[in-house]
Amino acid sequence: MGANEFLFLLTGLKWTVLLSIVGFIGGGVFGLAIALARTSGRPLLERITAGYIALFQGTPLLMQLFVVYYGLALVGLKLDAWVAVAIGFTLHASAYLGEIWRGSIEAVPKGQTEAAKALSLHYVWRMKDVILPQAIRISLPATIGFLVQLIKGTSLAAIVGFTELTRAGNIVSNQIFQPLLVFGIVGALYFLLCWPLSLYGSHLERRMAIATR
Amino acid sequence: MNYTLDFTPVIEGMPALLMACLGTFGLALGGMALAIVIGVGGVILRDSKIAPVRWLVKAFVELIRNTPFLVQIFFIYFALPLAGVRLDPTPTAIIALGINGGAYAIEIIRGGVQSIGKGQIEAGLALGLHKAQVFRLIVLKPALRAIFPSLTSQFVLLTLTTSVASAISAYELTSVAQRIESDSFRSFEVYGTITLFYLVISWVMMRFFAAISTRYFSYPVK
C-alpha cells in the first residue's frame, strides 16, 4: 500500500469523524427534545416519543438508513448522499440519546423537582438549572458509550454508498488486492478513534460508582 | 411529489422474504450460541493464572468492542480463506456474529459472576448443601438472573445486526430484500416492509425473553 492509498483512507476517516459529529450534535438536539417530551407528564407526548424510541431501537440501523435515504428521494427531495445519511444518523441518535437522557432525568431524586416546585421555579428554569445539570452528569458514561456506538455505526453508510472510512477501505482493497492489510488498517483507525472514548467512559463510570457508594 | 407507491414486487416476493426470515433467525441463533460459548470461555480464561492469557482476553474484548462489525465481518471473510478455511458467506457471518457477540457476552457474564458474594457460597456450604447444589442454587441461578436483562438485550441487538451480514451476501432478510429491490427498483417499499419485519422480530424476542424472566427469575431478592 502506497502513500496515496493511505491518504485516501485518511480522507475517509475525515468523513467518518464529520458524520459522527453531525449525527451526535443533531441527535443531541432532537434527543433532548425527545427526553423532555418523554418525561413531560403529558400522556400523548409520552406515548408518541415512546413509540419513536421503540421504532428506532427495534429495527436495524442499516434499514433506518435505507428507509431515510430512499424515503427522502421519494418525497421529491433530491439530496446529496451525505445529507441523506446525516439525517439518518441524526434520527437514529436522537432516539437512543432520548432514551438514555430520559433514564437520567428520571434518576435525579424526586426531592429535587419537589424543592424546585416549592420555590415556584417555572418548568424551564427547573429543568435548565436544577434537573438537567444533574441528569447530564448521571448520563455521561452512557452518552459516551453511545457515541462510540455511533462512530462504529457510521461504517454502515458505506453500504448506502457514502465514501467514509469503511467504503474507502473497500475501494482501496479492490485496487491493491490486499484486503487483510487494508481492513486491518481501517480497523486500527476506528480503534484509535473509539478506544480513548471507551476508556474515558468507563473511567467516569468507576468514579461515579465510588461517589455514590 | 408524483410518485405512487407500488407494493406489487413486495407481494410477489413475500414467500422469499418470509423464508429469508428463517435465514435471519438461523444467523441469530448460531451467533448467540457461539457468543455464549465464547462468553463463558472468555470469563474463565480472563481469570487464568497465566498473565498473557488474561491480557489476550482483555485485548480481544477491547478490540472487538471498539471496531465496527462491518469491518470485522469483512476482515473475517477475507482472513478465513487465507487460513485455509473455505466457508460459505452464511457460516462466515455466524462466526463473525458469534465473535462480536462473544466480546460483549464476556463483559456481561463477568459482571454476573462478580455479583455473587463469597459469603453466600460459604453460607450455603455451612447449611450442609452439596457442592453441586450450591453451584446450581446459589451461584448459577442468581448470576443468570443478574445478567439476564443485559444479555438478552444484547441478543436482540445481535439479531438486528444480522442485517449487516448482507454485505458479504449471507442468506438472510436484508440480502433477499436487496435482490428484490435491484430487480424492481421499488427501494422504499421493499426496505420499508422488511423494516416492519425486523420490528416484529425484535418485539417477539423481547416478549419471549420477558416471559422467561417472569417465569424463572421473578422471586423476591430479600
Automatic annotation (TrEMBL), chain A:
The chain crosses the membrane at residues 15-37, 49-75, 81-101, 135-160, 180-200. PROSITE patterns: ABC_TM1. GO terms for biological process: amino acid transport. GO terms for cellular component: ATP-binding cassette (ABC) transporter complex. It comes from the Bacteria. InterPro entries: AA_ABC_transptr_permease_3TM, ArtM/GltK/GlnP/TcyL/YhdX-like, MetI-like, MetI-like_sf. Its main location: membrane. GO terms for molecular function: transmembrane transporter activity. It is a multi-pass membrane protein. Keywords: Cell membrane, Membrane, Transmembrane, Transmembrane helix, Transport. Residues 13-201 form the ABC transmembrane type-1 domain. It is found in: Cell inner membrane; Cell membrane. This is Amino acid ABC transporter membrane protein 2, PAAT family.
Automatic annotation (TrEMBL), chain B:
Belongs to the binding-protein-dependent transport system permease family. HisMQ subfamily. Residues 21-209 form the ABC transmembrane type-1 domain. This is Amino acid ABC transporter membrane protein 1, PAAT family. The keyword Ribonucleoprotein does not apply. GO terms for molecular function: transmembrane transporter activity. Keywords: Cell membrane, Membrane, Transmembrane, Transmembrane helix, Transport. The chain crosses the membrane at residues 16-45, 66-85, 146-170, 190-212. Gene3D superfamilies: MetI-like. It is a multi-pass membrane protein. GO terms for biological process: amino acid transport. InterPro entries: AA_ABC_transptr_permease_3TM (IPR010065), ArtM/GltK/GlnP/TcyL/YhdX-like (IPR043429), MetI-like (IPR000515), MetI-like_sf (IPR035906). It is found in: Cell inner membrane; Cell membrane. One of its GO terms (cellular component) is ATP-binding cassette (ABC) transporter complex.
